[in-house]
């Protein structure tokens, strides 16, 4: 089946967003199922940037309680290495480095696998406790996609990628997105919110099918 002209799905997330981690398997499955009809683009929202960058210990009391709700509702599990990272407390929460890694990936990957890579970034952090400020984390992930680790690091460190990442943050703010995750179906010059927050797969799929039917009649 051919991709629908001028139609795409925007997955607006943040790498440090626990609810996005819960939603990630759902969006990954949806993107794979609809790959031949509706391409999916990932936008990073910049949830923890500027003055909000801080050691994870500052908000760990709140975060650790929120994780339990995410697990209960979505079925994902936060790994023991991540829980230890939070309890130790010195890790710096900063959305920019992982968002920049996703931006670099989008420039280097010819197969439009950005949803899968965004999923892998969150798996590395929330399941495996990997440091998202460390370029070695992304070099390892890039190898799994048959990308050259050295080239990936050069892109990750480049001023152009830093600037593009900041531009993406600004674009998300201009879209008026209030929280993550948010999914928007873009058809032509119009955007239709599919969900704000977590939705199970079947509900999300049903909503997408309804939007596709509605837009097809316009």
Automatic annotation (TrEMBL):
An MF annotation (GO) of this entry: oxidoreductase activity
InterPro entries, alphabetized: DSBA-like_thioredoxin_dom, Thioredoxin-like_sf
Protein name: DsbA family protein
Every DSBA-like thioredoxin domain range: 13-206
Transmembrane parts of this sequence: none
PANTHER family attached to this UniProt entry: DSBA FAMILY PROTEIN, GLUTATHIONE S-TRANSFERASE KAPPA
SUPFAM superfamilies: Thioredoxin-like
Gene3D superfamilies: Glutaredoxin, putative protein disulfide isomerase domain
Lineage of producing organism: Bacteria, Pseudomonadati, Bacteroidota, Cytophagia, Cytophagales
Superkingdom classification of source: Bacteria
């Amino acid at each position: 089946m051919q991709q629908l002209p001028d139609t795409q799905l925007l997955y607006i997330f943040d790498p440090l967003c626990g609810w996005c981690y819960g939603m990630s398997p759902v969006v990954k499955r949806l993107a794979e199922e609809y790959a031949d009809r509706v391409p999916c683009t990932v936008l990073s929202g910049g949830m923890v940037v500027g003055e909000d960058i801080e050691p994870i210990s500052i908000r760990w009391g709140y975060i650790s309680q929120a994780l339990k709700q995410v697990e209960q509702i979505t079925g994902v599990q936060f790994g023991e290495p991540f829980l230890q990272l939070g309890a130790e407390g010195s890790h710096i929460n900063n959305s920019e480095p992982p968002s920049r890694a996703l931006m670099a990936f989008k420039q280097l990957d010819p197969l439009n696998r950005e949803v899968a890579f965004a999923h892998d970034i969150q798996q590395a952090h929330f399941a495996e406790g990997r440091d998202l400020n460390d370029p070695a984390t992304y070099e390892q992930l890039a190898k799994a996609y048959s990308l050259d680790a050295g080239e990936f690091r050069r892109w990750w460190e480049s001023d152009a990628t830093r600037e593009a990442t900041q531009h993406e943050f600004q674009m998300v703010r201009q879209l008026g997105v209030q929280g993550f995750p948010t999914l928007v179906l873009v058809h032509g010059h119009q955007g239709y919110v599919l969900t704000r927050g977590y939705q199970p797969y079947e509900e999300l799929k049903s909503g997408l099918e309804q939007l596709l039917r509605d837009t097809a009649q316009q």
